[in-house]
Design a protein that fits this description.
Largest sheet: 7 strands, mixed
Helix content: 40-55%
Oligomer: single chain
Order of helices and strands: EHHEHEHEHEHEEEHHEEHEHHEH
Bound molecules: pyridoxal-5'-phosphate
Shape: globular
Number of strands: 12
Low-confidence stretches: none
Strand order of the largest sheet: 2-8-7-6-5-3-4
Mean pLDDT: 95
Number of helices: 12
Distance between the termini: 36 Å
Length: 397
């Protein structure tokens, strides 16, 4: 295998930093090392950069600058949204509605809250991974304080009916959070037309640095303290307007802002380019390989996501064999998730465990070329053929 030509097709797991983002990051480490809370000029220079970066990040989702709160990750943003709303509003109610296919950054805080006396509804999804908005509305009670439904799923790429959910939440006066870690920067998002109150995003999914995230918190009438309806989870200094203490990572945040700028510039063209490549891969795999089917919705899916099940073989074996050929993809099979169970998302859309074990997720990005896609499509079928010959799982058994 020629490592220098490694074909990375796992952009949903994380993205490499864009060279332009690295340049901004490297300069920022030197130029904006000051503590943005310090009164002197070095601190104020960092504080100014922070304001500018907040403005750029807000503009991608049509938000107000002061409604952006920087965090360390998508996971932290999800936790702040869910735990923060639960803690602050527990006197008003103890019911939260979410879906069964959320990322663990949402599922696990919900499960923690459930153990602490909250009532959580985990909505089921259909075979495409879509929630049913009628079921969502029927689940609302006078104790419901939060609806948290992901914008797009990280495994199967399905895009949820966010506008409809936002309208329902608004009508019932319930706070609406969406985990947009996979959608942010890839498809247009307008928090106002969608009636989203809280939105999580992460820099490392859009060619920015790891360890930088943000939570959008709609201001509901209190200028100084945007998150009147959210309780902070960390206690310390007054950073991020008392919502998230700790000395602010201005270099990382300015690099995040650069990544957002690039995403904004290229979104329209990149969406089209990746959709063509995505559909070409889906068509080729389901044509070239017997007993191979698509997971997720055929059209309501992220432009960069392909997820297929290749029956009678194990996902891990395909991932390892592809890696040997210099190609990086992922699977929803058991070992890769470090647990004995296959992906909860694939089981929730109704896959049999053995078909979930045979899943392969191929996610494309800015540096994916047609040539790379063709190479992958050439290498996979013989790997499948070889593994099937050795497989104890056979058709009709
Ligand atoms: N939510 C979704 C949908 C994700 O895909 C991920 C990461 O894979 C996260 C949350 C967690 O983000 P982070 O890695 O920034 O903590």
């Amino acid at each position: 295998m020629n490592k220098s030509k490694y074909i990375y097709l796992d952009y949903a797991a994380t993205t490499p930093m864009d060279p332009q983002v690295i340049e901004v990051y490297n300069k920022s480490i030197n130029n904006f090392y000051g503590n943005s809370s310090s009164l002197h000029s070095i601190g104020q220079k960092a504080a100014k950069k922070l304001v500018e970066s907040r403005e750029v990040v807000a503009s991608l989702i049509n938000a107000e600058r002061n409604d952006i709160f920087f965090t360390s990750s998508g996971t932290e943003s999800d936790n702040l949204a869910i735990m923060g709303v639960a803690l602050k509003n527990k006197k008003q109610g103890n019911h939260i509605i979410t879906s069964s296919i959320e990322h663990h950054a949402v599922l696990n805080p919900c499960e923690y809250l459930e153990k602490s006396g909250f009532d959580i509804t985990f909505l089921p999804v259909n075979r495409y991974g879509l929630i049913d908005t009628t079921e969502l509305e029927a689940a609302i009670t006078d104790k419901t304080i939060l609806i948290s439904i992901m914008f797009a799923n990280n495994e199967i790429g399905t895009i949820e009916p966010i506008k409809e959910i936002g309208a329902i939440a608004k009508e019932h006066n319930i706070i609406f959070h969406t985990d947009a870690v996979q959608a942010f920067g890839k498809i247009p998002i307008d928090v106002n037309t969608l009636n989203v109150d809280l939105l999580s995003a992460s820099a490392h999914k859009i060619y920015g640095p790891k360890g930088v995230g943000m939570l959008y918190i709609r201001n509901k009438g209190n200028r100084e303290r945007s998150g009147k309806y959210i309780q902070p989870l960390l206690y310390g200094g007054g950073h991020e307007r008392d919502m998230r203490p700790s000395t602010v990572n201005v270099p990382g945040i300015s690099a995040f802002a650069k990544a957002v700028e690039l995403a904004k510039e290229e979104m329209s063209d990149e969406r089209k380019r990746l959709t063509v490549l995505r559909d070409f891969i889906i068509h080729s795999l389901t044509e070239k390989i017997d007993d191979c089917f698509l997971n997720g919705h055929p059209t309501r899916r992220l432009p960069n996501n392909v997820n297929v099940s290749i029956q009678y073989i194990e996902g891990e074996s395909m991932v390892l064999d592809l890696d040997f050929e210099g190609i990086g993809v992922s699977t929803g099979s058991a070992c890769s998730s470090k647990s004995l169970d296959p992906s909860h998302v694939l089981l929730a859309i109704g896959l049999k465990p053995q078909d979930a074990h045979g899943s392969l997720r191929i996610t494309l990005g800015r540096f994916t070329s047609e040539k790379e896609v063709n190479y992958f499509l050439e290498k996979l079928p013989p790997i499948v053929q070889r593994l099937r010959k050795m497989s104890p799982l056979k058709k009709n058994t």
